[in-house]
Design brief:
Layout: H1 2-5, H2 24-39, E1 43-46, E2 52-56, E3 64-70, H3 83-99, E4 107-112, H4 125-131, H5 136-141, H6 150-156, H7 168-172, E5 174-182, H8 187-191, E6 195-201, E7 204-212, E8 216-217, H9 229-247, E9 250-259, E10 265-266, E11 269-277, H10 281-301, E12 305-314, E13 317-318, H11 321-331, E14 343-346, H12 351-355, E15 361-366, H13 382-400
Parallel strand pairs: 3-4, 3-5, 5-15, 6-14
Antiparallel strand pairs: 1-2, 2-4, 6-13, 6-15, 7-11, 7-12, 8-10, 9-11
Helix pairs in contact: 3-13, 9-10, 11-13
The structure holds glyoxylic acid (GLV) and manganese (II) ion (2 copies).
Length: about 400
């Protein structure tokens, strides 16, 4: 499975993945998912929001155990963020069948669409639509960098956009969702463990900062006469770093758009996207409030106008304690003590976080020796991935028998 997915959507220039929602690379990933489902005799379906499902047993029976993740990527992403959870789901099912496991609950494998939000700016679109966290009206307003709307992109990829919307009946059939994911930090490497269990996801969001000034000639416009928005943007980047350090949080300007984007023109517009995350809501508010206040002062000082728009937000997620304890018990052996499984929080967002308000949800992390993620250098050793599959199989078996 891993070898089949590796070339899909991979840039030969960067070695990274460009699997953006509703593009041909995404379609290839979706075809792969469908083929995996059908090869195993699972019941395959695409839901109204374009998420893909593969079922063993009848989901209408309810109280299903579901596992999976996503196949899309950030720009020049790694191979593991997302696909490891989907590949491991199919591999865990194979292992359960090999063990002759008897499951009394339906088992589902899911590929959530557009988790990274690389194309339309909002993460977890598939799961947000399903839970209603993203309304149909909001979804219709999502536009990519070329001005193509989400419904247009869906339609072009063969999915009927008229069907999108909340899917409470689908959610009601799920008794537990477990997402396996490559760790995106080094906690497991430092503790010497292959596998961890998630405790919580930091609150996080994306804010768009539009600094508007005046386009003019880079050679003939006196410095004193300029209204250059790049200056206030640059100072704001430094302010974000400072505010994050003060609050023990993180803040990143990782994407920027400049108009007219000419070497010899003072910009008329600098648009920067702030991604910020913190352990608690108060710290996050402090960081973003501080960055915005500083940005307004810098913009005023340089004769620029500033608009700040919150494009997405996900509150803190505390994963279901009972399910988390059940995972620890299953993975820890009968006594729960002979195998220590660390429990860790994360600053990364996941579909599991979106679902957690509606369904008992848990996550398993697989060791990442460098902690690098959202980069072609993202890595997990084969032994650790196999340990992840085995742990996931144990968890699914433990849950689906109860
Ligand atoms: C998704 O990976 C995110 O945390 O941005
Ligand atoms: Mn990611
Ligand atoms: Mn992910």
């Amino acid at each position: 499975m891993w070898a089949e997915l590796l070339p899909v959507g991979r840039s030969s220039a960067s070695g990274g993945y460009r699997r953006y929602a509703w593009t041909p690379a995404d379609t290839d990933c979706r075809t792969w998912f469908r083929e995996q489902a059908e090869a195993r005799g699972l019941t395959y379906e695409t839901d109204r929001n374009g998420n893909q499902w593969a079922w063993l047993g009848d989901p209408a029976a309810g109280d299903a155990v579901v596992t999976g993740s996503h196949l899309d990527s950030v720009p020049d992403g790694g191979a593991f963020d997302g696909p490891l959870g989907v590949v491991s789901a199919f591999a865990a099912l194979d292992e359960l069948r090999g063990r002759g496991a008897r499951l009394t609950r339906p088992l589902g494998i899911v590929n959530f669409g557009d988790e990274e939000g690389a194309r339309f700016g909002l993460a977890c679109v598939g799961s947000r639509l399903t839970t209603g966290a993203l309304t149909v009206e909001q979804a219709h307003r999502l536009t990519d960098g070329d001005g193509i709307t989400l419904p247009q992109a869906m339609e072009a990829a063969g999915h009927d956009p008229e069907t999108i919307g909340p899917d409470p009946e689908r959610l009601a059939r799920i008794g537990a969702f477990v997402e396996l994911h490559v760790e995106q930090g080094r906690a497991l490497d430092l503790s010497g463990d292959r596998i961890g269990i998630a405790s919580a996801i930091w609150p996080h969001g994306r804010w768009r900062f539009d600094f508007r000034g005046e386009a003019n000639h880079a050679g003939t416009t006196r410095l004193a006469d300029r209204r250059d928005p790049m200056l206030s943007y640059a100072e704001t980047v430094l302010a974000a770093r400072r505010e994050a350090e003060l609050a023990g949080a993180v803040a990143t300007f990782g994407k920027i758009a400049v108009e007219p984007n000419g070497v010899n023109a003072i910009p008329s517009l600098v648009r920067g996207w702030l991604d910020s995350r913190a352990a608690d809501q108060e710290s996050l508010d402090t960081v973003v409030g501080g960055v915005e206040k500083a940005a307004r002062e810098y913009a005023a000082a340089h004769g620029a106008d500033l608009d700040v728009v919150r494009e997405s937000f996900t509150p803190v997620v505390e994963f279901d304690h009972a399910l988390r304890d059940e995972l620890a018990r299953i993975l820890g052996g009968d006594t729960g003590t002979d195998l220590r499984v660390p429990v860790l929080g994360t600053g990364a967002g996941h579909d599991a976080g979106i679902l957690s308000g509606r369904v008992p949800t848990a996550m398993l992390f697989v060791r990442n020796p460098t902690g690098v993620s959202h980069s072609p250098a993202e890595y997990a050793a084969e032994d650790d991935c196999v340990a992840g599959v085995s742990a996931l199989a144990d968890v699914l078996e433990g849950l689906a028998r109860t």
